[in-house]
Amino acid sequence: MQRAHTDAGKPDVVRMTGVRFRWPGKRGFSLSIDSFALPARERVLLVGPSGTGKSTFLSLLCGIVAPTAGKLEVLGSDLTQMANAARDRFRAEHFGIIFQMFNLLPYGSILDNVMLPLSFSRTRAERAARNGSADEEARRLLKSLGLDAGELAEHSAASLSVGQQQRVAAARALIGAPELIVADEPTSALDRNRQLAFLDLLFAEAEAAGASVIMVSHEEELGKRFDRVLRLDEIALSQRSAAA
Amino acid sequence: MSVHRHIVPRLAMQSLRNRALTAFLTVLAIAFSVMLLLGVEKVRTGARQSFADTISGTDLIVGARSGSIQLLLYSIFRIGNATNNVTWKSYEDIAKRPEVAWIVPMSLGDSHHGFRVLGTTPDYFEHYKYRHGQGLKFAAGGPFKDLFDAVIGADVAKALGYKVGDPIIVAHGLGSVSFVEHADKPFRVSGILAKTGTPVDRTVHVSLEAIEAIHVDWQNGMPQPGQSVSADDVRKMDLRPKAITAALVGLKSKLATFKLQRAINGYVEEPLSAIMPGAALQELWGLVGTAETALSVVSAMVVATALLGMVTMILTTLNERRREMAILRSVGARPTTVLGLLATEAGLLTLAGVVLGVAMLYGALLVLRPWVDATYGLNLDINAPTAREWIMLGGIVVAGFLAGLLPAMRAYRLSLADGMTVRT
Predict the structure, then answer these.
(1) What are phi and psi of A35, to 5 degrees?
(2) Residue B183 host element (H or E)
(3) If we measure between CA atoms, which residue out of A90, A97, A75 comes closest to residue A181?
(4) Residue B316: in which H helix or E strand, if any?
(5) SS (H, E, C) B115-148
(6) d(Cα B317, Cα B264) in Å, to the nearest integer?
């Protein structure tokens, strides 16, 4: 399922230059990234102990928070130049995000959870429905991620095991083929065998969709599955003092 | 904007269904509070109306010189005592005046097991009107024909278990336990009045002559020893009263009301007062009205408590909602979307509560109305909510929506601070 990539000519999906950010309030936690680039279709693992700003880095990357200074380009668009609403829409269109845990709305059905991003992005909704209906695409993704969609799709998300929940979250991140998959320690709740199996399934689908993957983890052992392993403290400087 | 936009409200509904029990209890609490608030409003207007309906069709009440509320209290509500009597001559002078269409004398001062005894004429049953000019009706028997006949109100009959033909003994004075009784001259129940919801229900009516008769051998409020007159002998005596307590006056033309009132208030032979019942009732309600306001304030506070309960309910789910917000934000929902969802949820819960509360109130009114009327003489009209009530109901929904903004704003701030982190 190869798709025409509009940004095929551009080598980098993400490019950060001189990005500065400080959380509002008393936390005083600040992060500065002088330079970071993610080439298209590359799979990057970002490692670092907790408290070094991994989540802040991802929040910046996904446009959930806005940098106070610098340039943050995703697919050639500068997120810092966008209004909040535009950044939210941009995220819906181009990002698939997987959290560490509690990825699913517990009251929604599994299919509802997978198809959730399609409510916020027309492009992804159209892409998902390209080979039939969005519903079929959701079931296909669930199946290729090792979940029996026919059996589970109508179940409530709360009835799933953690491993199953993470695979549903992966299907949600992948549906409608966003250009960038961002995962925040998605495998930390899984045992080693399941971690690797999960990554293999995720990568296979990301590959097929032509998406880049950026994942943060404190487990460096997962690195051999990635094209590149970066240490967060190599690219970003974090400070906890109030006078950042 | 998008083909699948409908998934968000659907998720909101699923979210509510997921918490169906707490949501239902919240709605129920709001419904009860709305029912109380509106019920109090209905009872308040009903009570006010019933109060104003205690007497109608009477243009003036005449009594000894006193304040209008006092005269109204003792003549109509049978509360307290007259400071003085009205002589029979004054009564006849007023009765003779050309403006007067009818006049009914009232003589108070005796009691029967705590119920007041009213000496009057059979005209009383014809001219005393209540609730939009309704007249007194007999549930059994008829007006007094014999000197020692008595007509009792519905409450008297019920409380004492009297039937037509039963003998009763009137006591002197007003205590419920009286040691001085007119035992030598027993009365017979000739009629029982239908329930009116007015003080008439708690009154024993006898003829004016009967009041004279039972006091004929009394002087200075005590029976005179050796001077007792038998019930048979008393029938032969002149029983024309020397004085009465008050009189109800109906006029040929309402236009003459002020003129006659002035004439009576300026009556030279005796200090008299004439009051207009409507004005006096208004004045009296002004005193009672404070309780009415207190009742409204209390029920408004109950509504506020119910809304507070709802806010608490939403706040307790906030941790779960923070997760929900992070997830929704990650798929591209704007923070305001989630804020709106929470506030809408509160608005919907309140709306459901208000609708249920109104339905419950009207259901209860429909069922309880006849009972309330029979028991308390309180006529509760079943009509569509008044403009004032609509405003109250609308105000509650708006208040619920605004109250919902409280947890929503908090969730909004938290979601901004949470960023990508999904908290437990």
Answers:
(1) -160, 130
(2) none
(3) A97
(4) helix B277-316
(5) EEEEEECCHHHHHCEECCCEECCEEEECCCCCCC
(6) 73
B417 touches A: beta carbon within 8 Å:
yes
Q: Taking CB atoms and an 8 Å limit, are B3 and A125 in contact across chains?
A: yes
pLDDT tens digit sequence for B136-178: 999 988 888 888 899 999 989 988 888 898 888 877 665 554 4
- Domain positions in chain B: 7-52+288-418, 60-275
Residue type, B411: A
Examine the pLDDT at B424 and tell me if it is beyond 60. Answer: no
Strand partners, B171: B111, B181
Radius of gyration of chain B (CA): 32
Q: Show Cβ contacts of residue B141 under 8 Å, excluding neighbours closer than 6 positions.
A: B151, B164, B189, B190, B191, B192
Range A12-239 classified under CATH 3.40.50.720 = no
According to DSSP, the β-strands at B187-193 and B149-152 are parallel
Indicate the residue of B18, B332, B333 with minimum beta-carbon distance to A106: B18
Give the pair of three-digit tokens for residue B307.
């809304």
The per-type count for chain B, helices as H runs and strands as E runs, is: 13, 17
Give me the residues of B, 322-341, that contact A with CB < 8 A.
323-324, 326-335
Instruction: State the smallest CA–CA distance between residue B334 and chain A in angstroms.
Output: 6
Partner residues linked to B340 by β-bridges: none
What SS3 state is found at A81?
helix
A108 contacts in B (CB within 8 Å)? 11, 14
User: What is the rounded distance in angstroms from the CA atom of residue A191 to the CA atom of residue A171?
Assistant: 20
**What type of residue sits at position A103?**
N
- In whole angstroms, what is the distance from residue B266 CA to residue B254 CA? 19
Q: Predicted ipTM?
A: 0.82
| Contact yes or no for B7 and A117 at CB 8 A | no
pLDDT tens digit string along A98-113? 887 777 888 878 888 8
Q: Which of A103, A106, A119 sits opposite B4 (nearest CB)?
A: A119
Higher pLDDT, A53 or A176: A176
pTM: 0.67
Using a CB-CB cut-off of 8 Å, the residues of chain B touching A89 are: 332
Q: At what angle do helices B20-52 and B7-18 cross, to 10 degrees?
A: 80
Give the largest Cα separation in chain A, rounded: 55
Residue pointed to by tokens 């003080």: B199
Residues of chain A with Cβ-Cβ distance to B335 below 8 Å are 84, 88
Residue count (chain A): 244
- Which amino acid appears at position B267 of this protein? Y
Phi, psi at residue B24, to the nearest 5°? -65, -45
In B, minimum Cα distance to A25 occurs at: B417
What secondary structure letter does DSSP report for B170? P
Give the integer Cα–Cα distance in Å for B129 and A96.
81
